[in-house]
Amino acid sequence: MLFLIIGVTFLISLIAFVGGLTLFLREKVLEKIIGSLIAFSAGTLMGGAFLHLLPEAISEKGTDESSLLIIFLYVLLGFGMFFVLENFIRWHHHHNKEHPEIMPFSYLILISDGIHNFIDGIIIAASFIIGFPVGIVTALVVASHEIPQEMGEFGVLVYGGFKKTKALLLNFASSITIVFGGIFGFLLADRIGEKIIFLLPLAAGHFIYIAASDLIPEIKHKESIKKSAISFSMFLAGIGVMLLMKLFIDV
Fold first, then answer.
1. What is residue 162's DSSP assignment?
2. What distance in Å separates the CA atoms of residue 20 and residue 165, rounded to the nearest whole number?
3. Which of 21, 94, 206, 237 is the most buried (most CB within 10 A)?
4. Long-range contacts of 84-92, Cβ-Cβ distance < 8 Å, separation of 24 or more
5. pTM for the whole thing?
6. Which of 86-105 are b and which e, b meaning 16 or more Cβ less than 10 Å from the residue's Cβ?
7. Model confidence over 87-133: pLDDT tens digits?
């Protein structure tokens, strides 16, 4: 079972290279679409938080007032943690002359994606332990979520200052954490119990912070109504993809 979980999670981690398709685009073309990729990524982050992570946590813990209070406290904790982390990275950014061109939110994207993928690995491992069919369906759901998200995140990393090849490799490095999550979930399945569910609202807080604080401000100041409309449409498209996943693929 462990080798099956490692194999499946490793295959999913390879989806990070979907962003590499943009390597074949000319620089001018990439510059034109990168704003749309940022808007799309913001939409998938918000959609993932509100349509997947939070509903899953609520369905597991219940809708009574105390359970909801704990869940939303974890959301605020996740939001606050990334606020502090970003300010630390920005402070380090201003005092580090080696890579002064890298925007702080680029590192946040990588950290958040690593956490998210680690949680996905735990969920996949737990699903396979419950039953092979459940594990397969869960893996397909996770893979479906990753495809649009990785495209958007690659664009954000390039926009944030990374060279395209380095952005691709770093994106894969953050994706490979899904394998470690799978191993962790398999080894500690009996001990984790219900506590694992609180990682979901924590990750949701991370996603909301990045989308609202870093990505959306980058796309809302457009010099024309047409470009603003395109950005907003791509933002809605990102949410729409997450909604379709919830309605037609999620189980």
1. -
2. 8
3. 206
4. 85/111, 86/209, 86/213, 86/214
5. 0.69
6. beebeeebeeeeeeeebbbb
7. 775 554 444 444 446 666 777 778 777 877 887 888 788 778 767 87
